[in-house]
Amino acid sequence: MKSEVIEQGNKKVGVISVPSFYVGLAEDTKKEIEKLKGDKVSGVVIDLRNNGGGALSEASALTGLFINSGPVVQVRDSYGRVKVNSDSDNMVYYDGPLTVLINRYSASASEIFAAALQDYGRAVILGEQSFGKGTVQQHRSLNHIYDLFDKPLGHVQYTIQKFYRIDGGSTQHMGVVPDIPFPTAVDPEETGESVEDNALPWDSINPAAYEEVSALAKLVPNLDKAHQARIKSDEEFGFILADIAQYKAIKDKNTISLSEKARIASKKKKTNSALNV
Q1: Exactly one of 60, 119, 162, 194 is catalytic; which is it?
Q2: What is the number of other CB atoms lying within 10 angstroms of the CB of residue 228?
Q3: Are 88 and 114 in contact (CB under 8 A)?
Q4: Domain check: are 262 and 176 in the same one?
Q5: Is the domain of 200 the same as that of 264?
Q6: Can you give the residue range of the structural domain that contains 33?
Q7: What is the pTM assigned to this prediction?
Q8: Is 119 noted as a catalytic residue in this protein?
Q9: Does 133 qualify as catalytic in the annotation?
Q10: At 243, is the secondary structure helix, strand, or coil?
Q11: How many CA atoms lie within 13 A of 47 on its CB side?
Q12: CB–CB of 167/207 below 8 Å?
């Protein structure tokens, strides 16, 4: 993981990029937060794009850096028993403005962290709807059943638990829906947990006992309105929208011309289209 400072006018924004929830992530993040505080940033972005998850304990510990204390995630087993994982150190390591950036490939522990901060009203969630991986699997060797060690039979993987947000909703299937969505070429109907064969459905349980720490939800409509206006006027977003349109136009095309002349003409057309954005 790493952090950097991005300057916008006379303001500085700290960005902490988290590639996975490895053991020790929360402690590393504390160090990066101290660096950003020294740089006098006016806000922090936690970038979880393409973060497939990792240690559940780190999801709870990382959440605890931004809240005083309270539940982070609920875990239900096949018997219906619910365990609540909480932060209980009564310490906040960063209490300034916070956003979390996710995309369709943010999964598992990433979704637990983003969902908890969204439920607490602690952070604004930006980006794409996340993957929807809200289950826990366990591997078990078949050799424990059939004692054939000279010819191992391999392993079987089965689901033993399911994750739930502190508001009671599952992260399974639905994932985390951002407060402010970004333009994307990724269709949730085509990728993610929801397209897997026999994926468990979304459901809900009773919410955990928690209180919102901020009324960020009230600010989201105006923020989203300003964001949509910026998308229409910003040159960089114009390039992104053009790329998305081009991708959608060709993504289902599975043929290609064998004519060199036709191929060259097609390439020139794409180039001219990009230059005219």
Answers
A1: 119
A2: 11
A3: no
A4: no
A5: no
A6: 2-136+162-214
A7: 0.88
A8: yes
A9: yes
A10: helix
A11: 12
A12: yes
